[in-house]
Design a protein that fits this description.
The chain is mostly helical. It has two domains: about 50 residues; about 110 residues, AhpD-like, CATH 1.20.1290.10. Helices cover about 70% and strands about 0% of the residues. The protein contains nine helices and no strands. The longest helix has 24 residues. The chain is elongated, with a radius of gyration of 17 Å. The relative contact order is 0.16.
């Protein structure tokens, strides 16, 4: 991998509270250092406002967690973001999306073995990432599977992970797993 454009920070760059939080988050992920957090944590105000927003999308949102992971995996795959893929392939397995289903997600909406809901989600992700919008027919298809709040969350989740992929790739954040 290419050298990071912003080196992950330590105690001095993160401050005591940020450094401690990064240690806790790394331990929870089973890695020596969570480079996403030790990189973004160097911009304290941005980090401390982004963290609860991101956590809400990843945790207690309106979308079923398996749907959220499907969206995140597709965005990460589409953007070639190995950092997101490493983390979310593991998270997705804990949420019931096994390797064979992940491979179908990476193949795309036309993969055999996907249900109508999964195809609608993948098609909408592809359009959103590719064009920054979702066509009317795809939106109607998606709306047959998601309620109003879930639709809002879907767009926000895909957009957040698209932006995060751009950040991770551009800053060349080091991978956490070898």
């Amino acid at each position: 991998m290419t050298a990071p454009r912003v080196e992950p920070g330590g105690l001095r760059e993160l401050g005591l509270l940020g450094w401690l939080l990064c240690k806790v988050l790394a331990r929870a992920s089973g890695v020596p250092e969570a480079h996403l957090f030790t990189t973004l944590g160097q911009h304290k105000r941005l980090f401390w406002t982004w963290l609860p927003f991101s956590g809400m999308l990843l945790g207690p949102g309106r979308l079923p967690r398996a749907d959220a992971e499907l969206v995140i995996l597709r965005v990460a795959h589409s953007r070639g973001c190995e950092y997101e893929l490493q983390h979310h392939r593991r998270i997705a397995k804990r949420r019931g999306i096994e390797t064979d289903k992940q491979d179908k997600i990476f193949h795309g909406p036309d993969a055999d073995g996907l249900n109508d809901r999964e195809r609608a989600l993948l098609t909408a992700v592809d359009e959103l990432v590719g064009t920054r919008n979702v066509s009317a027919p795809t939106w109607q298809w998606l709306a047959r599977h998601l309620d109003r709040r879930q639709l809002i969350e879907f767009v926000t989740l895909a957009g957040q992970y698209d932006a995060l992929a751009a950040t991770l790739n551009t800053l060349r954040v080091p991978l956490d797993y070898g």
